[in-house]
Design a protein that fits this description.
Phosphorylase Kinase, domain 1; six-stranded mixed sheet
Length: 264
């Protein structure tokens, strides 16, 4: 079958599901994203009336592609993990020490499915704790549906590209999120940086797939790394407290809120 015939088949299958393709850019990445596994997951989500429109790509990467979509006129983010190119070894490290997923073994496909479920679960924990994250809506196989963080089909900017007036206030907000994530959701983000925080009037944490529960053997090291990354970035713009002081407050070894910039 020629590439043109493959494209025609793809279009027919998507249309048969009742999904409207809103952006021509979507088809530019269809060859290596919308494989048979993904189409089956997409079909199930559409069948459940969770998705009616697929728009253009929001972000593309080695691990996953994120597309804009709609459900009943409301924006959603469609995150599709790429089975062939995702980092199998790195994912195994985060899953192996997590009791929720420690029994996952076998194929790359099975691992990706577990990772998708893990991100959904992590988002649900964070959302229930009142932390600003994408609202988890549904998942199937390697597809995760989330609330869309943006306006007019344009996502909010990453922290590193955002127009921020008061860096100290934003920094304190994020420290509060990390503390609530730890104490209430019982999670460590484990990959926090200026790339995984969006900003529009307030910061939002994203990319929660690698977040681990507190009993993960590397949770303390991941928390230290998150704080180091946060302080590395914000130290350019405002005063930041000592890393150990922050960690002590977050973990409850000191019974007070994280230190404010300039204290100590």
């Amino acid at each position: 079958m020629s590439r043109e015939e493959e494209h025609e088949r793809f279009d027919r299958e998507i249309e048969a599901m009742g999904v409207r393709i809103k952006d021509a850019n979507t088809v530019k990445v269809r060859d290596d994203v919308f494989d048979e596994v993904t189409l089956m997951a997409l079909y199930k989500l559409v069948h459940k009336k969770l998705l009616s429109v697929i728009g253009g790509p929001i972000s593309t990467g080695k691990e996953a592609n994120v597309f804009y979509g709609e459900r009943d006129g409301q924006g959603v983010a469609i995150k599709i993990y790429r089975i062939q190119t995702a980092n199998f070894k790195a994912m195994t490290e985060y899953l192996a020490g997590d009791r929720r997923f420690s029994s996952v073994r076998g194929t790359r496909k099975g691992l990706i499915f577990a990772w998708t479920k893990k991100e959904y679960s992590n988002l649900a924990r964070a959302h229930d704790a009142g932390i600003p994250v994408p609202e988890p809506l549904a998942f199937d196989r390697n597809i995760l549906l989330m609330g869309f963080l943006g306006r007019d089909e344009v996502p909010y900017p990453q922290l590193r590209n955002a127009d921020i007036e008061d860096y100290g206030a934003v920094y304190r907000d994020i420290l509060g999120y990390i503390q609530r994530l730890y104490q209430e959701a019982r999670l460590v983000h484990a990959d926090l940086s200026e790339y995984n925080i969006l900003y529009h009037e307030k910061p939002y944490l994203i990319d929660m797939g690698q977040a681990v529960t507190l009993d993960h053997p590397r949770a303390p090291a991941f928390l230290v790394r998150d704080i180091k990354n946060l302080n590395r970035y914000f130290s350019r713009y405002c005063d930041v407290p000592d890393e150990q002081e922050i960690i002590s407050a977050i973990t409850g070894t000191e019974r007070r809120q994280p230190a404010q910039p300039g204290e100590g």
